[in-house]
Amino acid sequence: MTFSQEWDTRFKENNNISIWPWSDLVSFVMRYARPSGPQFRVLELGCGAGANIPFFLSMGAQYYGIEGSPTIIKRLREKFPSIQDRLIAGDFTSSIPFQGDFDLVVDRSAVTHNPTAGIKKCLEVVHKILKDDGKYIGIDWFSTLHSDYKEGKEAEDGFTRTSYQAGQFANVGRVHFSDRSHLEELLEKFSILILEHKTVKREIPDNGIFAAWNFVTKK
Ligand SMILES: C[S@@+](CC[C@H](N)C(=O)[O-])C[C@H]1O[C@@H](n2cnc3c(N)ncnc32)[C@H](O)[C@@H]1O
Questions:
Q1: Using CA atoms, how far apart are residues 203 and 66, in angstroms rounded to an integer?
Q2: Which amino acid residue places its CA nearest to atom 21 of ligand 1?
Q3: Is 155 a member of any domain?
Q4: Would 1 be classed as within a structural domain?
Q5: Does some domain include residue 86?
Q6: C-beta separation of 75 from 89 below 8 A
Q7: How many angstroms is it from 3 CA to the middle of ligand 1?
Q8: Which residues have CB under 6 Å of ligand 1?
Q9: pLDDT at 206
Q10: pLDDT averaged over consecutive 10-residue blocks of the chain (219 residues)?
Q11: Ligand 1 centre and the CA of 109: distance in Å?
């Protein structure tokens, strides 16, 4: 179990409440794994405040979400009563409480908040619960080119940092950064169909480089 409890505190204090679908997630799903109708089953790992839920419901997909924060899951069940039984509080590095045969598993910046061992364990289960031709899409997995990779403190392994006091990773516990070969090792059970490396340098105010991976994989 490698869920960082700091997330529950963030949500209790009404921080990190993102409610609009993330544009990269929408475009990757529409381009590479467009839901085909009511039989299409999608699981989101670490759904947070549910930013991506309305998008999948509008596509008519059967949506399931697992999220480590009981506080935010309680709020999501009230907000989306029609799918309340499919929104579960749990640590996806420990177990995934849904039976298999998903067409799609998605994760925007959630698995990348765990150390290498937890990520490996989670990906093994994801591989098992996907249909034979199912896809796993990862959006915003932080890259070692991100300027914050040099900040914080080393956690369980050389790719995982923690204890950020400032910036986008302040008070969220663990943050995992990947380079290409580490990512390929983590995803070795999957076929990588698309791999994009996104780097953004904000000039004003200068806050360094945001760098992250987006990928589409197939079982
Ligand atoms: C950066 S937020 C992203 C939330 C959402 N995916 C989005 O795009 O708005 C990361 C989320 O992953 C969840 N998370 C991180 N590690 C987890 C774990 N091991 N098990 C369950 N949830 C986890 C956190 O609680 C948090 O809600």
A1: 36
A2: 68
A3: yes
A4: no
A5: yes
A6: no
A7: 9
A8: 2-3, 7, 18, 22, 46-48, 51-52, 66-69, 91-93, 108-110, 113-114
A9: 85
A10: 94 94 97 96 98 97 98 98 98 93 98 98 97 97 98 97 96 98 98 98 91 98
A11: 7
Question: From residue 57, how far is each of 22, 37, 144, 157 by CA, in Å?
Answer: 15, 10, 34, 37
Q: Into how many domains does the chain fold?
A: 1
Tokens of 108: 């925007």
Domain CATH number, residue 153: 3.40.50.150
The single-letter code of the amino acid at 65 is G
Residue 36 lies in a domain: yes
Q: Taking Cα atoms as reference points, which of 31, 11, 209, 48 lies closest to residue 137?
A: 31
Determine the residue type at 63. Y
Residue 99 is predicted with a pLDDT of 85
Contact 134, 171 (CB under 8 A): no
Task: Provide the domain limits for residue 37.
Answer: 6-218
Cα first-last separation, the chain: 24
